[in-house]
Design a protein that fits this description.
CATH superfamily of chain B: MetI-like
Largest sheet of chain B: none
CATH architecture of chain B: Orthogonal Bundle
Strand content of chain A: 35-45%
CATH superfamily of the largest domain in chain A: P-loop containing nucleotide triphosphate hydrolases
CATH class of the largest domain in chain A: Alpha Beta
Low-confidence stretches of chain B: none
Largest interface: A-B, 24 and 18 residues
Radius of gyration of chain A: 25 Å
Order of helices and strands of chain B: HHHHHHHHHHHHHH
Number of helices of chain A: 9
Low-confidence stretches of chain A: none
Order of helices and strands of chain A: EEEHEEEEHHHEHEHEEHHEEEEEEHEE
Number of domains of chain A: 2
Number of strands of chain B: 0
Oligomer: heterodimer
CATH architecture of the largest domain in chain A: 3-Layer(aba) Sandwich
Distance between the termini of chain B: 35 Å
Radius of gyration of chain B: 22 Å
CATH class of chain B: Mainly Alpha
Helix content of chain B: over 70%
Helix content of chain A: 25-40%
Structural class of chain B: mainly alpha
Number of strands of chain A: 19
Largest sheet of chain A: 6 strands, mixed
Shape of chain B: globular
CATH topology of chain B: MetI-like fold
Mean pLDDT of chain A: 90
Amino acid sequence: MTGPLLDSHLVADRGGFRLDIALTAAAGETVALLGPNGAGKTTALRALAGLLPLGAGHVRLDGGTLDDPARRIWTPAERRPIGVVFQDYLLFPHLTALDNVAFGPRCQGASRADARRRAGEWLHRVGLAAHSRAKPRHLSGGQAQRVALARALAVRPALLLLDEPLAALDAGTRLDTRAELGRHLDDHAGATVLVTHDPLDAMILADRIVIIENGGVVQEGDPATITRQPRTDYVARLVGLNLYRGHADRHAVTLPGGFTLTAAGSASGEAFIAFSPGAVALYRSQPDGSPRNVWPATISGIERHGDNIRIQLDGPIAVAADITTTAAADLHLVPGSQLWAALKATETRIYPA
Amino acid sequence: MRDKARTPPVLAIPAVIGVAFLVLPMIGLLVRAPWSTLPRQLATPHVLDALRLSLITSTTATIVSILLGVPLAWLLARSSFPGRRLVRALVTVPLVLPPVVGGVALLLVFGRRGLVGTWLDSQFGITLPFTTAGVVVAEAFVAMPFLVISVEGAIRAADLRYEEAAATLGATRWTVFRRVTLPIVAPGLAAGAVLCWARALGEFGATITFAGNYPGTTQTMPLIVYLALETDPPAAIVLSLILLAVSVTILVGLRERWISAP
């Protein structure tokens, strides 16, 4: 078959908010829909699942059209070859783990015995064969997540939708569950769309990341590109970089305020310049010597960040700087202190906007 | 240290009087019961007939209420149609309507010359008044609102997203209702059914007005209690005890099985 397995253009209006994104996914591909709360991620997922009518656009899956408001085509949720893992799993509380997983095959017309046999196989695959008789309230968060995954995959969906599949888990469980989820996604022959606000989930699980803000796509690409070359402040914060957009003339990038940063690379026209907070050095008095970028700055915030201290600075540009605790002790850091910030041109990345 | 359980007298005194008011009549029944003649009273055929009739009619009325009331509750809770609020208000009228008035109203509609009764009689040869079926109709009329209100509340409180999850697994609307909604609202349904059944068991006014008082066919326990009180007071006490015992037994039994289950 040519073209992607999932080809969609999702347009939906919800009380002043408009979602308008194009989303495709190939067979075997995992696409992460990453964005802040309220960006429209869940709306997009509900539209794909058939739980929310599209205002315009289309959803085509596996060669068939599921949705096309302009042609008055609409497929209800129960007739879509789509499996969903919901954020809090929504396992049916009155059914055992086995019967939860058997629910889908039963609805597809399998006999009770056949549905249970298939459900048993799926529970075995997710390592929960021993818990098949347990009611959901007796399962841990990680176990419930795996039952929910087995339940969604047991209908053999062409498209698997995951809504924040790891958000309800504590940090320790999340690590193991994420790794296991990754293995199951690799085995899944259909397409997968993963909705998350956690960049780590997206980076590890997805082949491609689509970042949405305010109902629109702001950036799209493989995890490595997104990490190196963020294109919005939101993405830059997610991947932990300082990001500015300005006008580049070879090595010099002039920002909207008139401040100029010098980069080692070069570009021309509108460009982004990005650098890590760890690349910013702080001094009590104006440094002399090599750094090409030096500017006076005022401390506006101080917080712990891993083993380091993250300093938020005001000045000609707002910037985050990471310094060691030892360095912090020498610098006498209080909000409002005046410092000098320095950045080596070689620590920056420049790329066209 | 403050005593958390300390209750102000202004609340405690009326509360104790309230408990006494509710419990004393039942104690009175037990104290005044003619325990020595109890077995003989129980064995009277018309008492057993009345008890059997009461159990059969109240159970049938409860089943009818479930068959009609659960879909009605679903409609009231889930769909929006014009006049839904009005329908909801009308459905609850029998809760506050004096049962005798209900009986009169039933006669006007289902009586031999009633609006529906005439048609039932001419088309199917069915007459409801003064029959056992009439008892069921009277009891269901009075008791069904209890079930509808209870089930509607349970359906409203149920998490809609479970139904969405079922739909994504391929379940049709009917399968969703049968295999997800209904089991989730089961505790509410059980509570409503018990209330409905108890109300039907105790029904007096609408029954005697609409179905009359014929031993064996329409004479239920509350009717025989009332009649016995005029002719044979000790028998009335025994009959009341039986009703009390039946009600309490079933309430306790269901409570442990259904209502207090987590």
